[in-house]
Amino acid sequence: MRQQLEAFDNLAMRYENSTRPGDYIGDEALLEQLHRAEPTVKQILRRLDPQLAQEINVDAMAGETHARNQVQRGLGILTDMDEWAARLAPDAPALPADQFHPWVWDAARTFWDSQHYRAAVHAAASAINAHLQAKLGRRDVADDKLVQEAFSDKPAEPGKSRLRVPGDATSPTVQSRQRGALQLGLGSFFAIRNPAAHDTGEWTEQESLEQLATLSVLARLIDSCQVSR
Predict the structure, then answer these.
(1) Number of H helices, E strands in the chain
(2) Quick check: 211 pLDDT over 90?
């Protein structure tokens, strides 16, 4: 990231120096290089501090100057961030979202990158529903009703496949996990999916990350289950 920012800063400085007094546009070849580099620089700055990326627009009046100011701030963050982590952050484990179950993160990633956190959670829950339908071969029910049918303790029927937690069905632990899978699935759709679909305000990043983590637990459990037909 540092190399990308330093290269962009150097390029913007060269372009700034190529602009003659009274001219609006400087060296066009340098401007073309700035255009190519700008999206990557915005992505880097957005991850360091979302506010920094908002000032990056090399086509605006004095855009290269504003861009250099923001890039310098980003370089400052990169210089000090290790010390921030060591001295300011609590000694706690991190939770990398890209390690969530693929059903969850693949569906949520695009919305997450654009900071639409509630939509990211809704997309992840919808993806679990779709994968569960596909695993059971059912399209007649969805969401909480689908979970209830999937983990029902009733035997499978024609057109009504069930999910069974792997292991000895007579084991108290397996039986407990089976009951827990039903409750976790219902709770996830009632308490996470439904609010994500019907709320109107945006959710915080931390709250949404916790919701995705819960959905990832559910997705892994469903993915590991065996289908009883």
Answers:
(1) 10, 2
(2) yes
Q: How far apart are CA 69 and CA 214, in angstroms?
A: 40
Integer Cα distance of 118 and 168 in angstroms: 38
215 vs 187: CA distance, rounded Å: 10
Distance of CA 6 to the CA centre of its chain: 27
Burial class (CB in 10 A: 0-12, 13-18, 19+), 33: middle
Separation CA 104–CA 116 (nearest Å): 15
Query: Do the Cβ atoms of 162 and 137 come closer than 8 Å?
Result: no
**What pLDDT, in 10s, does the model give residues 10-32?**
988 888 888 777 666 778 888 89
Q: How many CA atoms within 13 Å lie on the side-chain side of 8? A: 32
Residue linked to tokens 């602009």: 19
Instruction: Report the distance separating Cα 107 and Cα 127, nearest Å.
Output: 6
Confidence (pLDDT) at 23: 67
Res 209: pLDDT: 95
Distance between CA atoms of residues 78 and 81, nearest Å: 5
**Does pTM surpass 0.70?**
no
Q: Which residue has the tokens 């996990």?
A: 177
Dihedral in degrees, nearest 10, Cα atoms 167, 169, 171, 175: 100
Structure tokens of 68? 């250099």
> What six digits make up the tokens of 110?
């695009």
Torsions phi, psi of 137, nearest 5? 70, 40
